[in-house]
Design brief:
Organism: Rhodococcoides corynebacterioides
CATH superfamily of one domain: Phosphoenolpyruvate-binding domains
Largest sheet: 8 strands, parallel
Protein name: Citrate lyase beta subunit
Order of helices and strands: HEHEHEHEHEHEHHEHHEHHHEHHEEHEH
Strand content: 5-15%
CATH architecture of one domain: Alpha-Beta Barrel
CATH class of one domain: Alpha Beta
Number of strands: 12
Keywords: Lyase, Magnesium, Metal-binding
InterPro entries: C-C_Bond_Lyase-like (IPR039480), Pyrv/PenolPyrv_kinase-like_dom (IPR015813), Pyrv_kinase-like_dom_sf (IPR040442)
GO molecular function: lyase activity
């Protein structure tokens, strides 16, 4: 799969100094995890499941989750399982340009799907495991490894950190240390770690308002910080940790000012475009994506197709970031500082090297903007595709 491959060649040439490269099943896990971008969740009960996946892939979604957990009522589970199997087999006839996963409730769901698939293994990349806990999670990972061997396909897992034991302060560190040990033993099967902020909020009877980001909800922000501390380290023991869902996509009466500064849009003759984003609550999403990356998270869970362009636009590496990352990563000096080629900051070769290496990985999968091109230009290019901001995955 390749990000932005649905855009016209002339548009790609205008936007990118270096366009994205293709990511395959043979790419290393970190590259594949960074390439997830906006992971679109689709209820497994959706009537036109195959058509939905194909349509979203054509619009630029590069990772999709068929959801058997929260999106499915208990009484509909059996039918939803069959629906997933049928959809995967149908998609395998002409595989879409997107990585397809299934979010299960238990290992029983995973076995049910795997036992009934015929050609569907050709498009199934793996499973999302909700409410991950060390003991049950290890058993699940062992069963996925056995299924991978039987199917002759390397299935991967994305555990979701959202259990109450990980949220409550008195049990959090023990739970996360246990998760770190388990995931470390199964490193080859773990694609990325996902964050379930909705379940975390529910532990305290909280639902954040659309005028706020998840980082304004302190008990959840503290937990995200702890997850990154245990599982997102850059010393070779960590994993790619993805951002939690942004749940809003409709206009509403605002209590606070929009979170989107007007200046970048005015500079790119896109004031009206900014107004459209604000009216759909995309300004809050953009703010949260920026805070995700500032806190060590990459990519995001999304439940609406209009969110995909926002996440991917901010995932592109800017020309300035790329120049800094290249200068730092290519230096043979063990320490010291270098002036940025943009003349506006100092790059410290020691502490900034992990950032530079990760930025270059992101540059490969999402591309590097041309000089003078911003995320506003990328978002506008994506919005000009008529279907890119319509419909809903729910």
């Amino acid at each position: 799969m390749q990000h932005f491959s649905h855009l016209e060649p002339a548009t790609l040439e205008y936007l990118f100094h270096r366009p994205p490269v293709a990511v395959t099943a043979e790419s290393d896990l970190t590259t594949r995890a960074l390439a997830l971008g906006a992971t679109l969740y689709v209820p497994a009960t959706r009537a036109n499941l195959v058509e939905t996946v194909r349509k979203r892939a054509a619009e630029g979604s590069r990772s999709v989750v068929l959801d058997l957990e929260d999106a499915v009522a208990d009484g509909d589970l059996e039918a939803a399982r069959g629906h997933v199997v049928a959809a995967l087999d149908a998609l395998a006839v002409d595989p879409p340009e997107t990585a397809v996963f299934v979010r299960v409730r238990t290992a029983e769901d995973m076995h049910h799907v795997c036992d009934r698939l015929t050609t569907g293994f050709d498009v199934l990349h793996g499973f999302v495991l909700p409410k991950f806990r060390p003991e049950s999670g290890e058993k699940f990972l062992e069963e996925v490894a056995a299924r991978s061997a039987a199917a002759g396909r390397h299935l991967v897992v994305m555990p979701v950190m959202e259990s109450r034991e990980m949220v409550y302060r008195e049990t959090r560190d023990d739970e996360l240390a246990g998760a770190r040990d388990v995931l470390g033993r199964h490193r080859d099967s773990v694609l990325a770690v996902r964050v379930g902020a909705t379940d975390m909020s529910g532990a305290f009877g909280i639902r954040r308002d659309r005028d706020l980001t998840i980082y304004d909800v302190r008990v959840v922000a503290d937990t995200i910080g702890a997850i990154v501390n245990h599982l997102g380290r850059s010393d070779g023991t960590g994993f790619v940790v993805t951002g939690p869902v942004w749940e809003y996509f409709a206009d509403h009466e605002r209590l606070f000012r929009p979170m989107l500064r007007a200046t970048p849009f005015a500079e790119h003759d896109a004031v009206r475009f900014r107004q459209q984003l604000v009216s759909r609550d995309i300004d809050g999403l953009l703010r949260e994506v920026a805070l995700d990356r500032a806190n060590g998270l990459h990519g995001k869970t999304v439940i609406h197709p209009s969110h995909v362009a926002a996440v991917h636009s901010l995932s592109v590496v800017t020309h300035e970031e790329y120049q800094d990352a290249q200068a730092i990563a290519s230096s043979s000096a063990g320490g010291g500082v270098l002036a940025s080629g943009y003349g506006n900051k100092m790059n410290e070769l020691g502490p900034h090297r992990p950032w530079a290496e990760q930025t270059l990985r992101r540059a490969a999968v999402f591309g590097v903007t041309a000089e003078g091109v911003s995320f506003v230009d990328v978002m506008q290019a994506l919005a000009r595709r008529p279907a890119s901001v319509t419909g809903t995955a729910r």
